[in-house]
Design goal:
With 264 residues, the chain is α+β, with helices and mostly antiparallel strands. The chain is 14% helix and 33% strand. The chain has four helices and twelve strands; from the N terminus they run H-H-E-E-E-E-E-E-H-H-E-E-E-E-E-E.
Length: 264
């Protein structure tokens, strides 16, 4: 897992540009309110009811597509600002993230303009994940332990990036210590959510933030919001989670021989 001070270089800029150009489906009638801009940890996106069947989507508009966005590792940790209770809360969240080995569920992704798309996701640690978007959205995002590919099923094209240069590492690492491995700037809790805000800086692009929100009772992951250097939010809410089901290993296979753009 990348440590503090790791550099993204030009890859983060190029990836952010690619993601902002991808087609995004507009919001349709469903009980998923717009996200509150981070960091406001006491509010959250309400996902559809358990086992809900998403309605048909339309195909137009534009927005961010990659479900985590790309962030630059921070320049310094502010752990000294946390009191013992906050540090204990961060330890609990770190233990939860480290303890999750497999996870399958649904997601709703809300773009900066309120547009929304949906799909299934699959996690197999260490290092493997798949976000499979529902039609008409033609994208799959796949990590195989070393690389991440954003694949367009309609165009039969894909873009390949190093896994170590994406925030996917936060969920896919065998072990993570938020205090030591990230630049946490805020941790809070109420009766509904435990919220952790991580700030990451890139000297050329600017500052981004990742806000992860967990259920206050059992620390189950509920959503994350990425705020890019322009202040635009992309939120992913997850639901129907199953941590006992083991995903098919074939879900995480990347075809490196396919047409692709590769970044080092």
């Amino acid at each position: 897992m990348a440590r503090r001070g790791a550099k993204f270089g030009a890859a983060a800029i190029i990836v952010a540009t690619i993601c902002s150009m991808l087609v995004f489906t507009p919001a349709v009638a469903e009980n998923v309110p717009l996200p509150t801009p981070a960091p406001r940890p006491k509010t959250g996106v309400t996902p559809p009811p358990q086992d809900a069947t998403p309605p048909a989507q339309q195909d137009s508009g534009s927005g961010h597509f990659f479900p985590f966005s790309f962030l630059q590792k921070g320049l310094g940790n502010q752990q000294s600002a946390f009191n013992p209770q906050q540090r204990a809360l961060l330890d609990r969240v770190s233990n939860y993230l480290s303890g999750v080995q497999t996870m399958v569920g649904n997601f709703v992704q809300i773009g900066p303009d309120g547009s929304r798309t949906q799909g299934m996701f699959y996690i197999q640690k260490p290092g493997k994940v798949r976000f499979q978007y529902n039609p008409p959205t033609p994208l799959d995002v796949i990590a195989d332990g070393s690389s991440v590919v954003v694949r367009d099923r309609n165009l039969a094209t894909q873009q390949l990036y190093p896994l170590s240069q994406t925030p996917l590492r936060y969920l896919l690492a065998d072990h993570i210590n938020l205090i030591q491995d990230t630049d946490v700037i805020s941790v809070s809790s109420d009766d509904t959510f435990v919220s952790v805000v991580i700030e990451e800086k890139q000297l050329v692009v600017g500052t981004s933030r990742l806000m992860m929100m967990f259920d206050a009772k059992d620390l189950t992951l509920k959503q994350w919001t990425v705020t890019d250097p322009q202040g635009l939010d992309t939120t992913v809410a997850v639901y129907n989670l199953d941590q006992a089901k083991k995903p098919d290993p074939n879900l995480f296979v990347i075809n490196y021989a396919a047409g692709q753009g590769t970044m080092q």
